[in-house]
Amino acid sequence: MAPSNSVTAFRDALRQSKSIVAVAGAGLSAASGISTFRDKGGYWKKYDPRSLATPEAFAENPSLVWQFYHYRRSRVMEASPNAAHYALATLSLPELLGTIAPQANFTFITQNVDSLSTRALNEVLQKRNSGATIPPPAPLYEMHGRLADTICTSCKRKETNLANKSLCPALETTGAPPAYGESEDAVADIPLAELPQCGHCGGLLRPGVVWFGETPLHLDEIDEAVGSADMCLVVGTSSTVYPAAGYAYEVSSQGGKVAIFNMERTDGDDESDFLFLGPCEQTLPDALF
Ligand code: BJW
Ligand code: ZN
């Protein structure tokens, strides 16, 4: 049967759910001005972002990979959460979830490294009515790490630093990445000793994100939530990167419902129960509230 786009039927299904997971991807942050990965309009047209997101790329050319991440850190620092982030943050408040799905718990899994969902949740929590007993918000797992974090390649210390735009003087002066058609020579070749260094041991820092071939974070908690979910909201992801790409299928295989919110059709979405095509910053709040 073709997926439904009925908001009424979706709300009925949500109301009956007992365990809801949301799996988000880059499309969630598109309206905040953050480029998606498989988007053709980005500055880094000359470089495929996927080919920079590997340990091999970092080993071969840490200067290039750091410039890519430095640029994205700067973009994220200037960005703000959008209506879809706030909708999911609101769903993370048990008192609000209870009005939509009275028997359900909620777990939010994001592949995004921009921390915009965490920022939206913190904002929503700050505005929350302070009653006598405030239940904790739903868990939020940033399974591909955070641009805000750095990891030392020597002592393995993880630190969070999104306050400083630049992690070292050399990156501060690299400017905008090359536009399409510009020569690769335009990319600065920063010597290793001038790239971000660990304040504890002097080792080379790397971005605190999960690259291809590395193990995503919080997998035990995520597997438990997905394994018991009876409703999966899939928001703004091409569902091409595993293990996240398999979560909707898993929920569906155990008899649960799947609702997809995406700008365009994605592989396998005809197997979903609900399909809301369009910008999730509109379709998600419209469908939920
Ligand atoms: C909108 C919108 C709007 C736009 N509204 N929608 C063969 C088979 C199966 C697996 C593998 C395989 N070969 C290799 C693997 C494993 C590999 C993998 O999946 N590869 C695939 C390419 C096949 N996976 C891994 O290596 C992972 N690790 C792993 O598997 O470890 C083994 C293990 C597993 C389980 C247990 C134990 C061990 C690690 C994956 C790490 C991915 N890292 C990246 C980079 C992170 C750092 C960084 O940001 O630079 O994560 S890659 C990149 O892709 C990033 C994203 O999180 C991820 C997913 O992309 P996403 O979010 O879906 O973005 P897009 O651009 O693809 O899609 C955006 C969507 O939004 C589009 O559909 C638009 O239409 C839509 N959209 N605007 C709604 N306004
Ligand atoms: Zn160190």
Automatic annotation (TrEMBL):
<comment type="similarity">
    <text>Belongs to the sirtuin family. Class III subfamily.</text>
</comment>
<dbReference type="GO" id="GO:0008270">
    <property type="term" value="F:zinc ion binding"/>
</dbReference>
<feature type="binding site">
    <location>
        <position position="69"/>
    </location>
    <ligand>
        <name>substrate</name>
    </ligand>
</feature>
<dbReference type="GO" id="GO:0005739">
    <property type="term" value="C:mitochondrion"/>
</dbReference>
<keyword id="KW-0808">Transferase</keyword>
<feature type="binding site">
    <location>
        <position position="280"/>
    </location>
    <ligand>
        <name>NAD(+)</name>
    </ligand>
</feature>
<feature type="binding site">
    <location>
        <begin position="262"/>
        <end position="264"/>
    </location>
    <ligand>
        <name>NAD(+)</name>
    </ligand>
</feature>
<protein>
    <recommendedName>
        <fullName>NAD-dependent protein deacylase</fullName>
        <ecNumber>2.3.1.-</ecNumber>
    </recommendedName>
</protein>
<dbReference type="GO" id="GO:0017136">
    <property type="term" value="F:histone deacetylase activity, NAD-dependent"/>
</dbReference>
<dbReference type="InterPro" id="IPR026590">
    <property type="entry name" value="Ssirtuin_cat_dom"/>
</dbReference>
<dbReference type="InterPro" id="IPR027546">
    <property type="entry name" value="Sirtuin_class_III"/>
</dbReference>
<keyword id="KW-0496">Mitochondrion</keyword>
<dbReference type="GO" id="GO:0036054">
    <property type="term" value="F:protein-malonyllysine demalonylase activity"/>
</dbReference>
<dbReference type="GO" id="GO:0061697">
    <property type="term" value="F:protein-glutaryllysine deglutarylase activity"/>
</dbReference>
<dbReference type="GO" id="GO:0036055">
    <property type="term" value="F:protein-succinyllysine desuccinylase activity"/>
</dbReference>
<comment type="function">
    <text>NAD-dependent lysine demalonylase, desuccinylase and deglutarylase that specifically removes malonyl, succinyl and glutaryl groups on target proteins. Has weak NAD-dependent protein deacetylase activity; however this activity may not be physiologically relevant in vivo.</text>
</comment>
<dbReference type="GO" id="GO:0005634">
    <property type="term" value="C:nucleus"/>
</dbReference>
<dbReference type="InterPro" id="IPR050134">
    <property type="entry name" value="NAD-dep_sirtuin_deacylases"/>
</dbReference>
<feature type="domain" description="Deacetylase sirtuin-type">
    <location>
        <begin position="1"/>
        <end position="289"/>
    </location>
</feature>
<feature type="binding site">
    <location>
        <begin position="25"/>
        <end position="44"/>
    </location>
    <ligand>
        <name>NAD(+)</name>
    </ligand>
</feature>
<keyword id="KW-0520">NAD</keyword>
<keyword id="KW-0479">Metal-binding</keyword>
<feature type="binding site">
    <location>
        <position position="152"/>
    </location>
    <ligand>
        <name>Zn(2+)</name>
    </ligand>
</feature>
<feature type="active site" description="Proton acceptor">
    <location>
        <position position="144"/>
    </location>
</feature>
<dbReference type="Pfam" id="PF02146">
    <property type="entry name" value="SIR2"/>
</dbReference>
<dbReference type="GO" id="GO:0070403">
    <property type="term" value="F:NAD+ binding"/>
</dbReference>
<feature type="binding site">
    <location>
        <begin position="111"/>
        <end position="114"/>
    </location>
    <ligand>
        <name>NAD(+)</name>
    </ligand>
</feature>
<dbReference type="InterPro" id="IPR003000">
    <property type="entry name" value="Sirtuin"/>
</dbReference>
<feature type="binding site">
    <location>
        <position position="198"/>
    </location>
    <ligand>
        <name>Zn(2+)</name>
    </ligand>
</feature>
<dbReference type="InterPro" id="IPR026591">
    <property type="entry name" value="Sirtuin_cat_small_dom_sf"/>
</dbReference>
<feature type="binding site">
    <location>
        <position position="201"/>
    </location>
    <ligand>
        <name>Zn(2+)</name>
    </ligand>
</feature>
<comment type="similarity">
    <text>Belongs to the sirtuin family. Class I subfamily.</text>
</comment>
<keyword id="KW-0862">Zinc</keyword>
<feature type="binding site">
    <location>
        <position position="72"/>
    </location>
    <ligand>
        <name>substrate</name>
    </ligand>
</feature>
<dbReference type="InterPro" id="IPR029035">
    <property type="entry name" value="DHS-like_NAD/FAD-binding_dom"/>
</dbReference>
<feature type="binding site">
    <location>
        <position position="155"/>
    </location>
    <ligand>
        <name>Zn(2+)</name>
    </ligand>
</feature>
<feature type="binding site">
    <location>
        <begin position="236"/>
        <end position="238"/>
    </location>
    <ligand>
        <name>NAD(+)</name>
    </ligand>
</feature>
